[in-house]
Design goal:
The protein is built from 5 helices and no strands. The chain is mostly helical and 103 residues long. The longest helix is centred in the middle third of the chain and has 31 residues. It starts with a helix and ends with a helix.
Length: 103
């Protein structure tokens, strides 16, 4: 750094103050671009990625409101796929969709 400082003093250029250096850094094109992208990315993460992650957590745990829940793995999926009413509902949905596409 001393060599750079001496070079500035030798050329007679004024040394930039802290605020001027920050302003110069902020005016760089890539910094400005990232400053526009970061809030949008934070919004997407907050509105899409976080709820998606929580849905996966809830589906793999025995979670009830007010309790921390216990990890049970795929037991919730085994329970619902083995349920006779759920199977009939899925069948009815496929039949309805097929009829809607054909007619």
């Amino acid at each position: 750094m001393a060599v750079g400082q001496r070079a500035l003093e030798a050329t007679g250029l004024p040394r930039l103050g802290r605020l001027a250096r920050v302003r110069e850094w902020w005016e760089q094109e890539h910094v400005f671009g990232y400053s526009l992208i970061v809030p949008a990315l934070a919004l997407i993460v907050g509105l899409v990625a976080y709820p998606f992650g929580m849905a996966i957590y809830f589906s793999l745990s025995d979670y009830w409101v007010g309790s921390p829940g216990q990890f049970i793995g795929l037991q919730n999926f085994r329970d619902i796929l083995g349920n006779e009413i759920f199977q009939q509902t899925v069948y009815n949905s496929f039949v309805f969709s097929l009829i809607a596409v054909v007619f």
